[in-house]
Amino acid sequence: MDYFATENDKQRLEDAYKGRKVFHGELHDHSDSGGTSDGACTLDVWKKEMAELKMDFAAILDHRQVRHMYLPEWDDTLFICGTEPGTTITDSHASKKNLHYNMLFPNSASLEKVLAAFPEYDFGGAPEGHFKYPTFTRERFGELMDAVRDNGGFFVIPHPRQIMVTEDVMDFWYRDYTGIEVFYEDLDAQASMDNYPLWEELLQRGKKVWVCAGGDKHKHPGTGALTTIYAEEQLGAAYIPHLRCGDFTSGNAGIRMLLGDTLMGGERPFSKDEKLLLAVGDFHESVRFADHEYSMVLLDDKGVVFKSEVSPDIMQYFSFPVSETARWMRAEILDETRKLRIAIGNPIWTEQE
């Protein structure tokens, strides 16, 4: 069966993303900003090396402080505000109960409001005040997630399998509409291979958790685990709304989806008259090789729906019927030559409530 989109289908998808351009960048990084920061590069070095790597943005998430967002070198067009604290979940059933978590915001004031609202942090205020890594119960940790979302932020559990030790994937879930870092450090890292089945199982258990990527770069910028976002402008605050609704791709190439008027990351009740529209392209130069073969795979909760060869040099469009029994549909891009996932799109959930 021919699943390539008609010209009308292509236009409908492009209209849904009208006014948005592709941006490639990092959602988990650290700088040398003084104080308690543990990165090796100043923000000025980040700027220079990001340009060389053709990276459009980086989330600078220095530990235990907010001073990086107040340095004169800070640039809102290149950097996303945030921080990466750690915690122990005291009532977790895990054998090792530790977690880190990334909190990303459109501006520093929103982050500081959340830190100040939780006395457990003992936050000393901006710009030089530090904060502690508090312990939380599951309930209180969920309240923190709610506060981040209520203040316009995006919450991610980074490198999950690399810190917490547990046999129960539910030890990693506290709220829907949050992220879990699957690609970690590099697309082909063992950590990425370990985290992928965790996210898959959460999806199978009905959890609406978005797939994320992060290099966790402490030395120099890199392109090992990028995020691809279609946004209105190159600005940290412009990316956050799309992260908050799951309309982004983890990895170094672009995936866009549309079902009715619902974009990737959204939810839409099944309708037999609607088609899932999909576009694949905008490969970052770090995964573009003339002699490699690439493919797109469409999946639902039952398995592979369709697979097709794709080119890194053009945008390709597809159109699919939606199964009445599918709970969600999502797409991935593979480098067949390396036998490697290079991009993972978030689902559109199609199940009836």
List keywords for this structure.
4-stranded antiparallel β-sheet; 353 residues; 29% strand; single chain; TIM Barrel; 14-stranded mixed β-sheet; alpha+beta; globular
Can you walk me through this structure?
The chain has 353 residues and is of the alpha+beta class. It has one domain (7-349): Alpha-Beta Barrel (TIM Barrel). Helix content is 19%, strand content 29%. It is built from 6 helices and 20 strands. The chain has helices at residues 7-16, 43-53, 108-117, 138-150, 190-204, 236-244; strands at 21-29, 57-60, 79-83, 86-88, 98-100, 102-105, 154-157, 179-184, 210-214, 227-231, 249-251, 254-259, 262-263, 275-281, 294-300, 303-310, 316-321, 328-335, 340-345, 348-349. The longest helix is centred in the middle third of the chain and has 15 residues, at 190-204. It starts with 6 loop residues before the first helix and ends with a strand.
What's the helix and strand layout?
Blueprint (H helix, E strand, L loop, with lengths): L6 H10 L4 E9 L13 H11 L3 E4 L18 E5 L2 E3 L9 E3 L1 E4 L2 H10 L20 H13 L3 E4 L21 E6 L5 H15 L5 E5 L12 E5 L4 H9 L4 E3 L2 E6 L2 E2 L11 E7 L12 E7 L2 E8 L5 E6 L6 E8 L4 E6 L2 E2 L4
Put simply, the count of helices is 6
CATH class: Alpha Beta
Following the backbone from N to C, one meets helices and strands in this order, namely HEHEEEEEHHEEHEEHEEEEEEEEEE
CATH topology, by name, is TIM Barrel
Percent range of helical residues = 10-25%
The CATH homologous superfamily name equals Metal-dependent hydrolases
End-to-end span in angstroms? 30 Å
Mean pLDDT, all residues: 97
**Gross CATH architecture:** Alpha-Beta Barrel
Low-confidence stretches: none
Could you say how many structural domains there are in total? 1
The major β-sheet equals: 14 strands, mixed
Radius of gyration: 20 Å
Secondary structure: number of strands:
20
Estimated share of beta-strand residues: 25-35%
What general outline do the C-alpha atoms trace? globular
Structural class: alpha+beta
